[in-house]
């Protein structure tokens, strides 16, 4: 790992096709800064992306990367990290990708606590399919498929994470680039599953959860006396459905990653040319 | 007396039927006898009829037949379930003192051997050992030296302490002595001869697991499902010794995607499931193929559709593995035809996956999965295992594959269709890949020319494999016979034995057993050379027969079994005979 890695080294030569002003630009820049800042380089980094406008991120970044099928990015990331714990693994996707089609994987990835980071670009809408309600859309948010609103409360992903035994829960806002990069950096540095929900506004289809809305409402936890060590405090903040926070809501400093508990050591890529030594013992077991 | 003996123990699920049967099967195997086991089981944990059947001979046995010689019946229902297989020389061992067994009638003139199993077990230290008392009785009836049981009892109960092992040995002897004292055992005429041969006894799932370890598999992700779970259970605990890991995923979608992630990180990686799980994995097949990730996906088939009959045999997923997934997916479909092939085809599956960077479907079935069979240990000679990793490039070789801007071309359209592969961590190898159509760098594209180039490139791997690999078949019987039988999967054993039965009655048959579903051998010449062609498979519609017809542009006959039970040798031989007779009948009518 070279110390002279700059965040632009994580940029691919592909020009993003996101709408001008899309929150995903800022989200991605912060991710690249955080990766460079934590001493990683493209050759030891693996980025897994979901499907959606947000999922395109893997294409615009330069590293080892896989852009998979809708909702399954987390299991791919877990497989990568288990097979080679020396890699820095980052998974990214949208709120639809992560909390709808992939919701099952989300709670299990949180429980499993593999050492990787998960950045969800939450725009409270389905962007790529042109503006349907997402699991984080407001109850009365009108879209083509929900003309009177979804009529059901939004998912609270941070509460889901807390209830599933998360060891790191953070919230970020893509337009506050400095803070956003810092928060993602903390997620990367966390020993375990670093979950960051990022408010990443969709300027094309969501005229409610806008930059202005978040700017006006968001409270930076760094400017409060919030103690991320304290699970009860975290719980109270997470359950305040009318408040938007920025910063680390909860972190378990004693977290031990899954692969470490399982005793995985080093890359699984190296194997012998033939059957492993002592393989005949496997046969002898059947005497 | 026939040269083989068919033995069974039956009762209710939860009665320890499986472990008792296994103790006997292992004892026979240790005594140098060939063994072939089968199970009747229902999809419930306690209650419901279940049986463990053992066929044994000094010569190799490859299948089950419709005959039972010794039956240990722990319940009356066991006798009814097996009624048709009993004959006048059969011996039925049961506890006549049990209230539910007092009015038992043993059919077809078979001998009723009443042994107070429970009472004798209590004398030996506990009623729970009544199955072992029955084993002792069976040893006496079959003239099988009871010492052979001791090692199996040790293996089964050793963990529980020496006292338990000793009690079980005593229980077995109580059963033996009771039969000696109360009956004229010579009358039964059974004599289980022992030999010096060394055998191992294992089932198809275990052979697949062992094949995976031999091949260097390091990562396995799966979700429990009958009858594939044994693969996962085998690997759990054992794979760690080699630096690998089994992960029980939250569902099959996660399982295949985890396995895919591990494979991209460079590990030899695998997942296994059965029908319903394969359905859930389907979307990811295309991702595996377009991202050009080597992955072994094992489907241990059971009766479908839907949840069907989870504990019953079927070969109904061939179309699914051959065509499953949207779009067109280059792949390999390999189907072992017997238990030793479960091992060797697994090794081959990993090599094919890495050489061609594609999904490889390893298709097995319930009959292979749960059947235990004896083999000489050198059948699994580990020195013969070859590991071929294909075009993996390290940091020194990576340069040759960089474009003028220094970017690694992970999907370079080579002449053979196979691109260089750089494991993550390789300097200068960083690249992205996606299930979207992409260019040689892995970047998304909708450019028409690049699309065609990449589709052709991926497809070319199959052509290359056709040139480089031998997708052949195994042949048995009379190569010049007018009748040709073709089958795939576990039917091989029953058909092989069926050949002998047919030959005894003057029917010469050529039999081809095909372990490669795609690519597969071209059977045009063989089909054209035969007068009658019959494709045998455990499904209702004849999925393999369809592909043969498609290949050779000629109609073939079909024998299909889909009641949930595997083919039995004698029954299959009779089916073939009937087909031939039916044919002969039509021909005669036409001649008139
Ligand atoms: C199995 C499957 N179903 C549906 C789709 C179509 N689809 C693509 S992106 C998407 C929604 C993405 O929403 P979100 O994750 O919120 O991402 P955004 O585009 O808003 O960034 C859907 C439904 C798909 N690709 N795959
Ligand atoms: S549709 Fe919305 S989320 Fe998608 S690129 Fe445009 S602004 Fe961003």
Concise overview:
The complex is a heterodimer of chains A (287) and B (592). Chain A is α/β, with parallel strands linked by helices and 287 residues long.
| Low-pLDDT residue intervals, each spanning 5 or more residues of chain A | none
What is the radius of gyration of chain B? 27 Å
Structural class per helix/strand content of chain A? Answer: alpha/beta
| Strand order in the largest sheet of chain B | 9-8-10-11-13-12-19
How far is the first residue's CA from the last residue's CA of chain A?
A: 50 Å
CA radius of gyration of chain A is: 20 Å
**Largest sheet report of chain A:** 8 strands, mixed
Q: Count the beta strands of chain B.
A: 21
In DSSP terms, counting alpha (H) and pi (I) runs of 4 or more, how many helices of chain A? 11
Which protein chains make the most extensive interface, counting residues with beta carbons within 8 Å of the other chain's beta carbons? Answer: A-B, 61 and 72 residues
| Bound compounds | thiamine diphosphate, iron/sulfur cluster
Number of helices of chain B: 18
Fraction in beta strands of chain B: 15-25%
Cα shape of chain B:
globular
Task: Give an overview in words.
- The complex is a heterodimer of chains A (287) and B (592).
- Chain A has 287 residues and is α/β, with parallel strands linked by helices.
- Helices cover 32% and strands 16% of the residues of chain A.
- In chain A, helix 1 (23-37) crosses helix 7 and helix 4 crosses helix 5.
- Chain A is globular.
- The mean pLDDT of chain A is 96.
- With 592 residues, chain B is α/β, with parallel strands linked by helices.
- Chain B has helices at 17-30, 76-81, 117-124, 130-141, 147-157, 162-182, 204-214, 229-238, 252-264, 275-290, 318-323, 339-356, 366-370, 448-468, 491-504, 524-529, 543-552, 569-591, and strands at residues 5-12, 34-40, 49-57, 70-73, 91-94, 111-114, 200-203, 217-222, 245-248, 268-273, 295-301, 332-334, 359-365, 372-375, 432-434, 474-477, 483-488, 509-514, 516-518, 532-537, 557-560.
- In chain B, helix 12 links the parallel strand 12 (332-334) and strand 13 (359-365).
- In chain B, helix 1 (17-30) packs across helix 5 and helix 4 crosses helix 6.
- Chain B is globular.
- In chain B, 55% of the residues are buried.
- The chains are: A alpha/beta (287), B alpha/beta (592).
- Strand 2 of chain A pairs parallel with strand 15 of chain B, so a sheet runs across the interface.
- Bound molecules: thiamine diphosphate and iron/sulfur cluster.
- Residues 18-19, 22, 24, 53, 123, 127, 202-205 of chain A line the site of iron/sulfur cluster.
- The site of iron/sulfur cluster has 11 residues of chain A, from loops.
């Amino acid at each position: 790992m070279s110390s002279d890695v700059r965040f632009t080294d994580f940029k691919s030569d592909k020009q993003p096709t996101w709408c001008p002003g899309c929150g995903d630009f800022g989200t991605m820049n912060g991710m690249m800064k955080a990766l460079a800042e934590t001493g990683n380089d493209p050759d030891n980094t693996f980025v897994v992306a979901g499907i959606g406008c947000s999922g395109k991120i893997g294409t615009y970044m330069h590293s080892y990367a896989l852009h998979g099928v809708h909702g399954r990015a987390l299991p791919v990331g877990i497989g990568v990290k288990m097979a080679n714990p020396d890699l820095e693994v980052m998974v990214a996707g949208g709120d639809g990708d992560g909390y709808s089609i992939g919701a099952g994987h989300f709670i299990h990835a949180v429980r499993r606590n593999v050492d990787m980071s998960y950045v969800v670009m939450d725009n409270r809408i389905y962007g790529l399919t042109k503006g349907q309600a997402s699991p984080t859309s407001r109850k009365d948010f009108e879209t083509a498929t929900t003309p009177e609103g979804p009529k059901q409360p939004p998912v609270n992903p941070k509460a889901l994470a807390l209830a599933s035994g998360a060891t790191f829960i953070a919230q970020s806002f893509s337009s506050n680039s400095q803070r956003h990069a810092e928060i993602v950096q903390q997620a990367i540095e966390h020993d375990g599953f670093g979950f960051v929900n990022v408010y990443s506004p969709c300027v094309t289809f969501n005229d409610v959860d806008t930059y202005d809305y978040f700017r006006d409402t968001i409270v930076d936890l760094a400017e409060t006396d919030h103690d991320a060590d304290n699970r009860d405090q975290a719980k109270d903040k997470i359950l305040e459905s009318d408040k938007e926070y920025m910063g680390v809501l909860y972190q378990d400093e004693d977290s031990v990653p899954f692969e470490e508990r399982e005793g995985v050591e080093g890359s699984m890529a190296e194997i012998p040319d033939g059957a492993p030594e002592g393989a005949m013992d496997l046969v002898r077991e059947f005497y | 007396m026939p040269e083989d003996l068919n033995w069974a123990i039956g009762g209710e699920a939860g009665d320890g039927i499986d472990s008792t049967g296994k103790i006997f099967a292992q004892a026979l195997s240790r005594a140098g006898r060939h063994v072939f086991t089968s199970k009747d089981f229902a999809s419930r944990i306690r209650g419901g009829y279940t049986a463990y059947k053992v066929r044994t001979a000094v010569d190799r046995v490859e299948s089950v037949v419709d005959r039972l010689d010794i039956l240990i019946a722990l319940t009356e229902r066991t006798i009814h379930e097996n009624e048709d297989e009993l004959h006048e020389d059969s011996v039925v061992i049961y506890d006549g003192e049990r209230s539910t067994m007092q009015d038992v009638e043993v059919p077809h003139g078979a001998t009723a051997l009443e042994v107070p199993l429970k009472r004798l077990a209590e004398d030996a230290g506990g009623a729970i050992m009544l199955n072992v008392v029955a084993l002792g009785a069976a040893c006496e009836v079959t003239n099988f030296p009871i010492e052979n049981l001791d090692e199996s009892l040790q293996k089964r109960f050793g963990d529980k302490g020496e006292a338990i092992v000793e009690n079980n040995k005593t229980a077995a002897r109580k059963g033996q002595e009771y039969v000696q004292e109360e009956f004229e055992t010579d009358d039964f005429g059974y004599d289980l001869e022992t030999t010096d041969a060394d055998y191992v006894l294992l089932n198809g799932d275990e052979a697949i697991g062992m094949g995976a370890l031999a091949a260097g598999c390091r990562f396995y992700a799966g979700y429990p499902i009958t009858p594939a779970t044994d693969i996962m259970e085998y690997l759990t605990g054992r794979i760690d010794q080699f630096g690998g890991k089994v992960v029980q995923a939250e569902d099959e979608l996660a399982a295949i995607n985890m396995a895919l992630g591990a494979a991209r990180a460079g590990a030899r990686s695998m997942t296994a499931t059965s029908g319903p799980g394969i359905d859930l994995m389907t979307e990811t097949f295309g991702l595996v193929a377009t991202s050009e990730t080597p992955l072994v996906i094992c489907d241990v088939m059971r009766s479908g559709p839907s949840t069907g009959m989870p504990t019953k045999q079927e070969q109904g997923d061939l179309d699914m593995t051959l065509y499953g997934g949207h779009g067109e997916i280059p792949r390999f479909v390999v189907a072992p035809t017997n238990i030793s092939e479960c091992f060797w085809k697994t090794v081959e599956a990993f090599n094919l996956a890495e050489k061609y960077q594609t999904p490889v479907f390893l298709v097995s079935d319930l009959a292979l999965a749960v059947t235990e069979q004896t083999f000489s240990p050198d059948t699994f000679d580990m020195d013969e295992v070859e590991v071929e990793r294909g075009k993996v490039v390290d940091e020194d070789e990576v340069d040759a594959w960089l474009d003028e801007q220094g970017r690694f071309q992970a999907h370079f359209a080579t002449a053979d269709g196979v691109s260089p592969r750089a494991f993550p961590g390789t300097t200068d190898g960083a690249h992205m890949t996606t299930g979207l159509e992409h260019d040689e760098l892995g970047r998304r594209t909708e450019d028409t020319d690049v699309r065609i180039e990449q589709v052709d490139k991926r497809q070319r791997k199959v052509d290359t494999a056709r040139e480089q690999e031998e997708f052949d078949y195994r042949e048995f019987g009379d190569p010049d016979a007018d009748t040709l039988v073709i089958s795939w999967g576990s039917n091989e054993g029953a058909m092989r034995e069926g050949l002998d039965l047919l030959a005894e009655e003057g029917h010469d048959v050529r039999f081809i057993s095909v372990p490669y579903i795609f690519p597969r051998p071209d059977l045009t010449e063989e089909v054209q050379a035969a007068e009658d062609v019959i494709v045998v498979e455990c499904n209702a519609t004849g999925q393999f027969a369809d592909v043969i017809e498609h290949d050779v542009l000629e109609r073939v006959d079909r024998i299909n079994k889909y009641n949930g039970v595997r083919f039995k040798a004698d029954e299959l031989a009779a089916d073939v005979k009937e087909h031939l007779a039916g044919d002969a009948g039509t021909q005669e009518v036409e001649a008139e």
